[in-house]
What does this fold into?
Amino acid sequence: EAGVAQSPRYKIIEKRQSVAFWCNPISGHATLYWYQQILGQGPKLLIQFQNNGVVDDSQLPKDRFSAERLKGVDSTLKIQPAKLEDSAVYLCASRFASGNTIYFGEGSWLTVV
Amino acid sequence: SQQGEEDPQALSIQEGENATMNCSYKTSINNLQWYRQNSGRGLVHLILIRSNEREKHSGRLRVTLDTSKKSSSLLITASRAADTASYFCATGEKEGAQKLVFGQGTRLTINP
It folds into this structure.
């Protein structure tokens, strides 16, 4: 079974530039998450989708971060404009609608310089 | 905000010894899960324990849950070098339709 796919794996940008990350969840998983993990810390939930609807985006910095899951499958997370403190790993994860276990991708590493 | 807090933040032991990590949380939960993260990789689910369970085993892993103290522990027996990783606890508030809130993690190093 294919896992959660993310791209790109690594990205270096200058502050004030924009970046987009893409995620393809496990087939059939209705729930999709984007987590931000700063070095040395645990993952922090940015946004949770159920199919193509947003369930929770309370910790998403909406002035610069946006995410969409238009067809209820793939998702894109965008940061514009990026700040130095956005340097982190962005983890996409998915889950069956009624399940408890979350499956993570390998992450997209962002460095803002 | 972080829900769980792991203790210790870092643990270094010799191969073959047992490793114990603790997690404390603040609000009521439906379940608590433990995940492992190897350096530079994503998180991998290890074990889930529900709020009505007190202990659960999976291979060399043993998890306990004390809802009265809002705490959990993860025991890895007969540790191996491959167990070197960060371990995170995560709490789920609802069955099935939940978001997981992760702690800060324990960095475990197994010395050969």
Summary: The interface with chain A takes residues 2, 4, 31, 33, 35, 41-45, 48, 88, 92, 95-105 of chain B (CB under 8 Å). The mean pLDDT of chain B is 91. The radius of gyration of chain B is 13 Å.
